[in-house]
């Protein structure tokens, strides 16, 4: 970039009439341009680094949540009214049966009623298989839930506790995933790199602190100019995979305790949830926030608050509970994103370690083979053999 | 003595080498395409058996240990008796509205019970059939996780975690391996079929044409160079002294003629060659070919659409649902709102099996195909980037000169 400017300035110089004036003007015009360019470059690098990508992910998820809320709330759930109709219809039929068999004939009445109930059950079962849960879309698609849905789409977890029902929602999900997944992968790689670097730095500094004495010895060795110092220095940088595993295990255990406390799950279930989520499997048999209050409850509470500010403690606690749960969902969101980053970090570090180990192993093997050959030749024959063997 | 030993060693070495070769071949095979497919398949089948055994065993154990939990609360019988009570007490005062309202409430309770039971899913024996368990273990290692079948016992959950930890790297290995192989073969097919490399005549003619074009270009460039050189030399010389101009130009022209002869001979050498050289050229050029992005995208979209048609026929989904299912599955999201074999499970058992297996094959192949496409796209993008970089460099160089 700077070369270009150097190149361009002589052209201006040659073309200009007043030499001095042109030089001054060109530098004056270049200065803000340069600054703007630098600013742009800095901005782009910032956007491409961890913070920017993280912000982008959050922004994308929030936009997606709003869009899905808008799309899915449009969906007129006919099944709810249909179920109501069905029930009234069947109660009417039951009434008819009762009226018809006015004389109290219990076995016959039971037979008839049972048949009607069977029919009713079959119909309800068919409706449920089509995805009726008994809650209206407005209740299901509250903002935090939609946020969770977006996150589960772009991280490819896919809990499946809530799914788009409208054709538009399905199409939008596909498009959203097409753009979201590469973005998420970018985040994953970036976060992994940054976390790996910082973790390595942390590990190294801790290592230095704990091994002050050996450090001095190494310094001496370095001063002596032996290769030992360089060797140990190179070895020091690698973070062992056990440390990565400890980090992951610690993280998972934290999540286990957290979710077990919040969602009243058993520890095994909570652990299972954390593992399946971080492995991106996401069965959806345990989903945090499924026990959350629905949007209707929130609306009612806020309505109540708007009615009278002089709130009694009961109401305050109610609201407190709701806001608490919202913060829980936000923490959940952060837990997932951070966990994915940690997994990426461990992947990075472990890959590096494996690569270094493999290289070392190869070198060791080579040395070993050489050594054994030399020894074999040395003890069993004269060194001339060595040269002979080299021909083969 | 030394000769004897050397002969002895020569005799021993092949055996050792043979053994080593065998080992190497075996490991190479295990981690080659066929081996890895077999490994994944057997791992999945083994997982299916393990999960089936664990779940059914635990279920039976729970059933014998705590039978009260599995006491079938007869919802319909309950409802029936409640309605009977209502009717019996209602028979005295004959109020139709009240009666209907109360019956409605009872029915609502009944409906809730039915919903709850339906959401819990079918019973364990039905859920954990072999095909169900197979699909379950497949969704675990591919990280799709539909969630239509989930382990309910503690041991099942623990084994799932272990199974996933071992299985996921295996599957990633499968993906990278098969993706690589598919990418290579797809590139080969693309270069052979789409660019008409398959018939040697066309390829040869094309190469000859390209070479002729190149030669003409080189000639033109040379001419241009020569002219510019002559011009520059003439100007430089004219600025210094005019007396030496003629001699210098004559020497320059003689240089040029010599060099032109040389370069033309250099150019003629590859042109006037035999078929073997052209064949080598053809073979070399297949490595440089990159499949364009549009073809990759087209392959992915057509795979998803064909899956939509296939599943639409099997499961009576419409095309939107089918393609939605395929996309969600292949991107490993896996909501599980649409699952193959979900509807057929109550009707026909043989059909379910076929559908499950079809789904498994579709998923395994599709994920490898997507890995292939990403492989090719990455290559193409890198190639494009390099070309752009080169272009920029050339541009800057032009400007600087």
TrEMBL record, chain A:
<feature type="transmembrane region" description="Helical">
    <location>
        <begin position="243"/>
        <end position="262"/>
    </location>
</feature>
<dbReference type="GO" id="GO:0005886">
    <property type="term" value="C:plasma membrane"/>
</dbReference>
<keyword id="KW-0406">Ion transport</keyword>
<keyword id="KW-0407">Ion channel</keyword>
<comment type="similarity">
    <text>Belongs to the two pore domain potassium channel (TC 1.A.1.8) family.</text>
</comment>
<dbReference type="GO" id="GO:0030322">
    <property type="term" value="P:stabilization of membrane potential"/>
</dbReference>
<feature type="transmembrane region" description="Helical">
    <location>
        <begin position="140"/>
        <end position="162"/>
    </location>
</feature>
<dbReference type="InterPro" id="IPR003280">
    <property type="entry name" value="2pore_dom_K_chnl"/>
</dbReference>
<dbReference type="Pfam" id="PF07885">
    <property type="entry name" value="Ion_trans_2"/>
</dbReference>
<protein>
    <recommendedName>
        <fullName>Potassium channel domain-containing protein</fullName>
    </recommendedName>
</protein>
<dbReference type="InterPro" id="IPR013099">
    <property type="entry name" value="K_chnl_dom"/>
</dbReference>
<feature type="domain" description="Potassium channel">
    <location>
        <begin position="247"/>
        <end position="289"/>
    </location>
</feature>
<keyword id="KW-0812">Transmembrane</keyword>
<dbReference type="GO" id="GO:0022841">
    <property type="term" value="F:potassium ion leak channel activity"/>
</dbReference>
<keyword id="KW-0472">Membrane</keyword>
<feature type="transmembrane region" description="Helical">
    <location>
        <begin position="43"/>
        <end position="68"/>
    </location>
</feature>
<feature type="transmembrane region" description="Helical">
    <location>
        <begin position="329"/>
        <end position="350"/>
    </location>
</feature>
<feature type="transmembrane region" description="Helical">
    <location>
        <begin position="174"/>
        <end position="196"/>
    </location>
</feature>
<keyword id="KW-0813">Transport</keyword>
<keyword id="KW-1133">Transmembrane helix</keyword>
<dbReference type="GO" id="GO:0015271">
    <property type="term" value="F:outward rectifier potassium channel activity"/>
</dbReference>
<feature type="domain" description="Potassium channel">
    <location>
        <begin position="126"/>
        <end position="196"/>
    </location>
</feature>
TrEMBL record, chain B:
<dbReference type="InterPro" id="IPR003280">
    <property type="entry name" value="2pore_dom_K_chnl"/>
</dbReference>
<protein>
    <recommendedName>
        <fullName>Potassium channel domain-containing protein</fullName>
    </recommendedName>
</protein>
<keyword id="KW-0813">Transport</keyword>
<feature type="compositionally biased region" description="Low complexity">
    <location>
        <begin position="231"/>
        <end position="258"/>
    </location>
</feature>
<feature type="transmembrane region" description="Helical">
    <location>
        <begin position="289"/>
        <end position="311"/>
    </location>
</feature>
<feature type="transmembrane region" description="Helical">
    <location>
        <begin position="158"/>
        <end position="176"/>
    </location>
</feature>
<keyword id="KW-0472">Membrane</keyword>
<feature type="transmembrane region" description="Helical">
    <location>
        <begin position="354"/>
        <end position="377"/>
    </location>
</feature>
<dbReference type="GO" id="GO:0005886">
    <property type="term" value="C:plasma membrane"/>
</dbReference>
<feature type="transmembrane region" description="Helical">
    <location>
        <begin position="28"/>
        <end position="54"/>
    </location>
</feature>
<feature type="region of interest" description="Disordered">
    <location>
        <begin position="228"/>
        <end position="258"/>
    </location>
</feature>
<feature type="domain" description="Potassium channel">
    <location>
        <begin position="299"/>
        <end position="381"/>
    </location>
</feature>
<keyword id="KW-1133">Transmembrane helix</keyword>
<feature type="domain" description="Potassium channel">
    <location>
        <begin position="126"/>
        <end position="183"/>
    </location>
</feature>
<feature type="transmembrane region" description="Helical">
    <location>
        <begin position="128"/>
        <end position="146"/>
    </location>
</feature>
<dbReference type="GO" id="GO:0015271">
    <property type="term" value="F:outward rectifier potassium channel activity"/>
</dbReference>
<dbReference type="Pfam" id="PF07885">
    <property type="entry name" value="Ion_trans_2"/>
</dbReference>
<dbReference type="InterPro" id="IPR013099">
    <property type="entry name" value="K_chnl_dom"/>
</dbReference>
<dbReference type="GO" id="GO:0030322">
    <property type="term" value="P:stabilization of membrane potential"/>
</dbReference>
<comment type="similarity">
    <text>Belongs to the two pore domain potassium channel (TC 1.A.1.8) family.</text>
</comment>
<dbReference type="GO" id="GO:0022841">
    <property type="term" value="F:potassium ion leak channel activity"/>
</dbReference>
<keyword id="KW-0812">Transmembrane</keyword>
